[in-house]
Structure formats: C-alpha cells, structure tokens
Write a structure and sequence with these properties.
The protein is an alpha+beta fold. The chain has a domain of about 150 residues: Nuclear Transport Factor 2, Chain: A (Roll), CATH 3.10.450.50. Helix content is about 50%, strand content about 15%. α7 runs parallel beside α8. The longest helix is centred in the first third of the chain and has 41 residues.
Length: about 300
C-alpha cells in the first residue's frame, strides 16, 4: 500500500513541475517580444539622437529670423513678435531702416564742398559753434577750414585772404576774435574813465609807448599811466564810434587798426593798438592816435 501511494504522488509532482516550466517559458517569451517591439514604438537610439538634434535645431532657429535648416525636413521658422504672432517682414523693415539711414548720410556727404561752404557762410560765429555740437557729420562740416575762412572775411577783413594760418582758419578766427574783444575793452575803459582797468590792460614794461591824439608821446609804464590819469581828470566824457576795425594776429603779437569818430561831421582819427601775449593773456604795449590827413583809403577787394 505504501508503494502504491508513492507511485501515485510522483506523476502529480511531475505534472505540476511541467506546468510551472511551461508558464516560465511563456512569460520569458512575452518579455522577449516586448523588448523586441519597444524600439519600433519609441524609436531606436539613432532615431532618438536625430530627434534631439532636430529639436535643438528648432530651438536655435527660433532665435533667428526666417532661418531654414539645410539638409533636414524642418520647415522655415520665423521669429515671433514681442506682441504675439510671427513677423514675415522683420528683415525687410530692418533693411529698409538701414538703407534710409545710409541714404540720409550719403546725401549730406555727397554735397559739393563749395555748396556746403556757401551754406555755412550764412551762419554767424555762435551758430556755427552750435552746429558743430549736433552730431559727428555736422561737426565735420562745421570744422571745415574753408567755412571758417569765409566767416573770417565776413566778420573781419579781406586783407588776409592770401595768408595760410599755421593752426587753420578756425583757430585764427578764435584768436582774432579774442584780440578784437580786448581792443573793445580798451575803448570801454576810456568811456568809463577807469584808470584801474586801464592799468591792468597795459603791460608793465619800460618799452611800452602811448601817443595821444594831441601828439604827445609817453614812454614806459609809469609815464603812460600818468598820461591816462591826466586825460581822465581833465577831459569830460565824450561819445565816439569805432569803425573799420582790422586785426592781424601772430603767435605772441597782434595789432589792430581802426578809425575813431568823435563827431559824425569831423574827420576821423586813425588809431593803432599793438598787443603782446604774456602768461595766457593779451597786454597792450603801444597805442597811437592821430588825425587823418584827408586821404581816402581804397577799399579792399577780395582776390587783389
């Protein structure tokens, strides 16, 4: 009986083991099949790399206006506007703006220099200086030597048409204006009868000289100051006009000639003032005033 029971249990154990083996084989087969078909649904490693590259290219193209990736099947990507949507003509508008700016600059630069100089000749000294501060193109035009030469002849004299200033006509114009302003202060001190200001205007040197309209000559700083003291004490205030002011400026010396009219019906006095440049300012070193002898001075004609 015990041997029969043992023989009956052995087939059952074998059958159970067979079933488990079959199930294990079936599950293993399913696992292999799932691994085999997964790349088809998700793509292979090469396809994934290509997809990532395409995504990066799309991101790069989004940063550039209207770029197309060559060698790929991507469509042209257009840069979005800040307020939404895409801008199909961003590049065209940018190119148009650049062209307009370039055209405006080229039109100014292509003007004939003579026309530019003629146009600037209608400006006065302050206006020409303000124009030079607007932009680089106007600064270049306003610093043109011919423009300052024309302005010099308009404001001062044609006598120096043939000279060539060492530092250019702009610097020469500024130096001439400075000496003309100092010469104007000299006559203002006479009107105000200010001996203190007159003493500061003259150079304190023994070679300075002054010839008054009376014909008296005074030499040396002290003698010249004494002559002006006497003139301011004795003479009453007089009205006079200064005309035909002409200046010549060198490095450290300048002289100014003019006509002085005390009364409109009388003959003018010819006045010459000579200045020297010391320690950053102009000093008067010679003054000469004399009655005009009746000769008429010929006008200066440009080019002669």
């Amino acid at each position: 009986m015990e041997s029969i029971a043992f023989s009956l249990s052995s087939p059952q154990t074998f059958f159970v083991a067979l079933i488990f083996t079959f199930l294990s084989f079936f599950l293993a087969l399913l696992a292999v099949r799932s691994l085999t078909f997964k790349p088809k649904s998700g793509g292979s490693a090469t396809d994934l790399s290509t997809s990532n590259k395409n995504e990066k290219l799309r991101a790069c193209c989004a940063c550039n206006c209207n770029d197309v990736v060559s060698g790929s099947d991507l469509e042209p990507l257009r840069a979005p506007h800040l307020n939404g949507g895409t801008g199909p003509d961003v590049t065209e508008k940018t190119a148009t703006a650049i062209t307009e700016r370039q055209t405006g600059a080229s039109m100014m630069e292509q003007l004939v220099p003579e026309i530019t100089t003629h146009a600037l000749s209608y400006l006065d000294y302050p206006s020409l200086c303000r124009l030079s501060m607007t932009n680089s193109l106007m600064r270049k035009a306003a610093n043109d030597d011919n423009a300052w030469k024309a302005l010099y002849h308009k404001d001062f004299t044609l006598e120096q048409d043939g000279i060539t200033p060492v530092n250019g006509w702009k610097a020469y114009y500024a130096a001439t204006r400075a000496i003309v302003n100092v010469n104007t202060e000299f006559f203002n001190f006479i009107r105000e009868r200010s001996l203190a200001e007159m003493s500061r205007l003259w150079l304190n040197a023994d070679y300075v000289k002054c010839v008054h309209a009376s014909g008296e000559l005074f030499s040396g700083y002290n003698a010249v100051m004494q002559s002006w003291r006497l003139a301011f004490d004795w003479e009453q205030g007089v009205n006079f006009q200064i005309r035909d002011v002409r200046a010549r400026v060198l490095t450290d010396m300048a002289w100014v000639t003019m006509k002085t009219y005390f009364e409109i019906d009388t003959k003018p006095f010819i006045v010459t003032n000579i200045f020297e440049f010391h320690n950053g300012r102009w000093y008067l070193v010679h003054h000469h005033s004399s009655d005009m002898n009746g000769e008429v001075e010929q006008p200066i004609v440009q080019g002669q």
